[in-house]
Amino acid sequence: MACCLCAKYILLFFNLLIWLTGGAFLSCGILVLYKRDLHELFALLSYDSQLVPSFHNVGYVLIGVGALVFIVGLLGCCGSVRESRLLLGLYVFFIILVMGGELAVAMYTVVLGDEWDRSLPNTLKSRLSTYNYTVPQRFEYDLDTVQKQFSCCGIHGSSDFHDNTDYKIYGNRLPSSCCNILSNGICTESDSYRLGCFQIINDNIQLYSKLIVTVGVGIALLELTALIMAVCVCRNTTEEDEFY
User: Is 0.90 surpassed by the pTM of this model?
Assistant: First the structure.
C-alpha cells in the first residue's frame, strides 16, 4: 500500500513536469510560426528538397505535440488523484503513442541529416548560378535575409557566385547582402563576409542539436518512469470508476 501511495505521488509530480514540457512545445511552435527571422531560413533550406519541412509544418507539429502532451499530463494527474483505472489506462495509451511519435521523429531526423550533409549544400549552390540581381524573386529575398542575419555570403563562400551571369555582367559584383559595409554602394569580394551560410547555419544547428538530444533523452526517461508508475498505480487500484 505504501509503495502504491509513493508511486501515486511520484506520478503526480512527473505529470506536472510533463505539463511544463507541453507548454514548452506549444511556445516553440508559436515562436516558429510568428518569428519572421525563421521564415526565410526554413524557406531557403526547403528549396528543391522533399525532406526539409516548411516552417509552417514545423510550427503546427510542435503545437500539436504540445497539445497532446498537455492532454496526457491532465489524464495522468486526474488518474493518479482519482486512482481511476480508465483514466490511467488512457494515460498509458497516450504515453506509448507519444513515445512512438518521438521515435518516428528521431528516425526522420537521421534521414534528414543524411540529405543535409550530402545533397542540400550542392542543391542550394547550383541555384546561386540563377540568382537575379535586377529582378529578385522569392529565392533571392530569402537568401539576402539569411546572409544579413548570419553575416555570411553564398553557401560555401563568396566564390559560389563566380558562375552567376549577373556577377560577370556587373563586373564581379556581389549581392549587397554579402557585405556589411559597401564601397561606393557596391559589394566587392574583398569586403564580403568570409564564411559561407551553410557552415554558420550548420554550426548553430549542431550546437542546438546536442541540447535537443539531451532534453529528448531526459523527456523519454521521464515518460518511461511515468509509464511504470501509472501501471503500478493502476494494478493496485481495486475500486471501480465512478463519475458523478
Answer: no
Count Cβ neighbours within 10 Å for each residue of 85-100 and write b for 16 or more, e otherwise. Answer: bebbbbbbebbeebee
Average pLDDT of the residues in 37-62? 65
In a domain, 12, yes or no: yes
* Residue 85, domain extent: 2-96+209-235
187 lies in some domain = no
pLDDT confidence of residue 4: 61
Domain count, the chain: 1
Is 215 within the bounds of a domain?
yes
Whether the per-residue pLDDT at 99 is higher than 70: the answer is yes
